[in-house]
């Protein structure tokens, strides 16, 4: 078994795709003509976005919308970069909210946290051991 994809449910798929391209340099791979599903170019494992309406159809009991939560959800997307401070600044300039400025962890990894306009929590981190 391997991780095939991660789907984040968001209010506006096209806006999330656009934000991730501006903030993190990840271009759109695919946006369905309905606008309810889209994917980014992220390598072997796909990062996708789906509309809350699609989530509602998948989960009859509903789901927690990150965009409506005052606190970030208890999960994050980790994006690895050799230059966390620059990536962090770029994300803020694109509209992300800073949760934690870049810091060097005891094991040497540089890490920061931002929250995207759609509520998604993103960790920006240097490679472990790098």
From TrEMBL:
All copies of domain VOC, residue ranges: 2-127
GO MF entries: lyase activity
Domain of life of the native organism: Bacteria
SUPFAM superfamilies: Glyoxalase/Bleomycin resistance protein/Dihydroxybiphenyl dioxygenase (SSF54593)
InterPro entries: Glyas_Bleomycin-R_OHBP_Dase, Glyas_Fos-R_dOase_dom, GlyoxalaseI/FosfomycinResist, VOC_core
PANTHER family per record: GLYOXALASE FAMILY PROTEIN, VOC DOMAIN-CONTAINING PROTEIN
UniProt-recorded name of the protein: Catechol 2,3-dioxygenase-like lactoylglutathione lyase family enzyme
């Amino acid at each position: 078994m391997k991780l095939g994809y991660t789907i984040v449910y968001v209010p506006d798929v096209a806006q999330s795709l656009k934000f991730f391209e501006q903030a993190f340099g990840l271009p759109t791979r695919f946006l369905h003509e309905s606008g309810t599903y889209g994917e980014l170019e992220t390598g072997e494992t796909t990062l996708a976005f789906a509309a809350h309406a699609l989530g509602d159809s998948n989960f009859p009991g509903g789901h927690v919308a990150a965009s409506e939560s005052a606190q970030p959800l208890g999960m994050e997307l980790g994006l690895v970069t050799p230059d966390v401070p620059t990536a962090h600044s770029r994300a803020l300039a694109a509209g992300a909210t800073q949760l934690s400025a870049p810091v060097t962890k005891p094991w040497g990894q540089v890490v920061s946290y931002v929250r995207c306009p759609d509520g998604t929590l993103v960790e920006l981190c240097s490679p472990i051991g790098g």
